[in-house]
Design a protein that fits this description.
heterodimer, A: alpha/beta, Rossmann fold, two-stranded antiparallel sheet, 8 strands, B: Rossmann fold, 6-stranded parallel sheet, 6 strands, globular, binds thiamine diphosphate
């Protein structure tokens, strides 16, 4: 079975020009260990709202690719959020659920995906046209590349092993991350505006 | 319907004056005109939610993107959003502007609204979320602008309670 860390490593370079939102705990820690960037925001609490935060970003910045790294436990707290994603269908949003069938970051309790609940099925039935479930690194890399290239909302489920780092607290303070992320976007939008003015 | 169209317009115009570019909403009776106004406005991004708490995430994303936003919900929607408010908006210092219709307070005829009506202000207070009332159309613009100014100065959620006085016109 593939590991989430390998998945992140396989696509890390492609995150350079994306706004990235992760959920708390293991995935935030793993992405940081590959190298923190100012365009990464780690939502270190508020289970379920990673996808909603990504939706807000994607709707307000339609020219900007937004990637959300979600978890099965987290999205299970906001299944309605799938219907909101489907309804607004932001073309610039890639939603990835790392489904380890577990609440790993609190010690590993099985979630309902371990007894057959199918998150891709929920996403699809919610009205998201482009959905996919992947099991290998090659499939993951291919599906992610494809989602980044495609001009449409994609929601994918990556089935991964329930393993992660030993601890979850990192050097980066929550607010430091938050202000850095906002400032990064400010710079992007100012540059885009200047560029637009030159063109006119 | 005895929901005040005129006062809904006053509230909507005030939001526009505050440069609100995104509104997230979950309907309830008092909010129908306001939501329709957002829908008819080509410059407004309206996000209709499945559950109000999503709106906290959407507003956080909008804030990071440099867009001013507001949440439109009833007080039971506020109750349903509390973890998001605490664990995202307060933890990450998001200037969340919440317009909450204050159901279940004096004058309420729907029995099911009354329990939530009684806990709305105590909860806002215990969360440390400052609030004021939208009760007089002449003061709506000023109160919304002041709440927004405070939310941005403090990077903290602020609430405006839409009252029966403003939103409801008793049929004669
Ligand atoms: C509302 C709420 N309930 C419980 C928790 C405790 N908690 C923190 S992380 C977590 C598990 C997250 O699971 P998942 O999204 O599947 O990600 P994983 O940890 O497996 O990577 C839980 C339950 C919380 N933060 N918030």
């Amino acid at each position: 079975m593939m590991q989430r860390f390998e998945c992140l490593r396989a696509i890390y370079d492609q995150l350079e020009n994306c706004l990235v939102v992760t959920i708390m705990g293991a995935v935030a820690c793993e992405l940081q260990s590959l190298g923190h960037k100012p365009n990464f925001f780690y939502l270190q609490h508020a289970m379920g709202l990673g996808s909603s935060t990504g939706l807000g970003l994607a709707l307000c910045l339609p020219q900007q690719k937004v990637v959300v790294f979600d978890g099965d436990g987290s999205i299970l707290m906001n299944l309605g959020g799938y219907t909101t994603l489907a309804r607004y269908r932001p073309k610039n949003l890639v939603h990835v659920v790392f489904d380890n069938e577990s609440l790993l970051s609190v010690g590993g309790f099985p979630t309902a995906t371990s007894t057959g609940s199918d998150l891709e099925g929920v996403a699809h039935a919610s009205g998201i046209a482009r959905t996919k479930t992947v099991h290998t690194i090659e499939e993951f890399k291919h599906a992610f590349d494809d989602a980044l290239r495609t001009n449409d909302l994609t929601s994918m489920v990556a089935k991964v092993e329930a393993v992660g780092p030993k601890g979850y607290v990192t050097e980066l303070a929550l607010l430091e991350n938050r202000f850095q992320f906002k400032r990064y976007i400010e710079k992007l939008t100012t540059e885009a505006r200047r560029h637009g003015e030159r063109k006119n | 319907m005895p929901v005040s169209l005129a006062n809904s317009g006053v509230v909507y115009d005030a939001l526009k004056k505050c440069d609100i570019g995104l509104v997230s909403a979950l309907p309830e009776t008092w909010l129908v005109h306001l939501i329709r106004m957002a829908e008819d406005d080509p410059k407004m991004i309206l996000v209709r939610l499945a559950k109000e708490e999503e709106g906290v995430g959407i507003s956080a994303g909008a804030h990071f993107a440099g867009v001013k936003s507001a949440m439109l919900m009833q007080n039971h929607g506020f109750l349903a959003s509390i973890n998001g408010i605490v664990s995202l908006a307060q933890l990450y210092r998001i200037p969340l502007l919440m317009l909450i219709s204050y159901r279940g307070h004096f004058g309420e005829r729907d029995p099911w609204q009354t329990q939530g009506g009684g806990v709305t202000e105590p909860l806002l207070r215990s969360l440390g979320i400052p609030y004021s009332f939208l009760d007089d159309p002449a003061k709506v613009e000023k109160r919304i602008a002041e709440a927004q100014t405070w939310a941005y100065a403090s990077l903290h959620p602020a609430a405006l309670l839409l009252t029966r006085e403003l939103m409801w016109e008793e049929p004669a």
